[in-house]
Amino acid sequence: MASEAGARKSMGLLDAALEKVSSYRGQYGAMMNRFESSKAVLSQQGVAMQAARSRIQDADYAAEASQLARAQILEQSQNAALKMANQVPQTVLELLKM
Prior knowledge:
Elements: H1 4-97
């Protein structure tokens, strides 16, 4: 830097470069804040999805348990009706033997 004018010009260029760097840092910081916010929202949505999936699976389990109980009750009632139907001829035979 042979002259004072050259030094001033260099200082001006450095100041402009520093302003640009500061601007980029601000933009980068703003992007990072948006990314962190998006990350937090996605994390909350993931937790909500897991909870919903769990409730759906629990509901399916309850429905299946209910269907099983219904099927067992129907089977027991059919067996009881069949047993009674088989006893009627025996009762009639015993009445006829008297």
